[in-house]
Fold this protein.
Amino acid sequence: MTEADTLDELRPEHQGAIAIDPRPCGHCGLLVGEHFTIDQGDGPEHFCQPLDVVLHLRAAALQESWERADPRDAWMHTGKAPPPDSVRNGPQAAPCRPSRRPVQSTIDAFLYLVSLKDPDRLVAWLQERERDRPFLLTLLEAK
């Protein structure tokens, strides 16, 4: 084996890619590839990022993972066309019918007036409450 053969065998381009250490940094928790890297000719030096940069990078990665998981937003990262409006806005729910039930204090007042057994006062009170009257009368019939 000659010296040239030995040097060729040691060259990285002939050995394939060199794996970077996958362990997290003991100081900041990032992998070596996520560190700030400076190469001045003697080989790369890896430095921990400032805390605000680390937080920003992690928040951006979290937001991207959420967007990729959501079919409405995944197109921003995949390069595909945006989905149609039916997917982006989701299914349109039928409008909610407003409740016809009066507030509890009105029901309590009605039941109190019924307990007084004064029909004239009850009729006068019900005339002031057009919207609540049908529901309140159903309560009276149920008794």
